[in-house]
Amino acid sequence: MATHSKQTLYLLGGIIAALAVWGIYLAIGSYLGMGEGTRAYDIRRGLMVVACMGGFLLFWGALLWNRNRRTNSDDS
Question: Which of 33, 57, 61, 65 could potentially form a cystine with 40 if both were Cys, beta carbons 3.0 to 4.6 Å apart?
């Protein structure tokens, strides 16, 4: 049976949390639009960044789930 140590799960959870925080940080920056020639306070840019990061995390989570499911079924 493929078991993951607590340390591995904590590390994976930490990476996912760090990516989520980084995505929120980038979304806030794009929402504020502090670059020259950009319109400030445009919610669409922030939502686009959050949607892309969320999509990436969901895709990555689906791949990890599928790998875990296949590994557990091979051990049976």
Answer: 33
Separation of alpha carbons 32 and 30, rounded Å? 5
Residue count of the chain: 76
The single-letter DSSP state of residue 36 is: T
Question: Which token pair is 31?
Answer: 């929402």
> Which of 23, 62, 68, 76 is closest to 46 using CA atoms?
23
Maximum distance among all Cα pairs of the chain, rounded to whole angstroms: 60
- Radius of gyration of the chain from Cα atoms? 18
Integer angstrom CA distances of residue 76 from 5, 35, 46, 68: 20, 56, 45, 13
> Do 57 and 24 contact (CB within 8 A), yes or no?
no
Tokens 């020639």 correspond to: 37
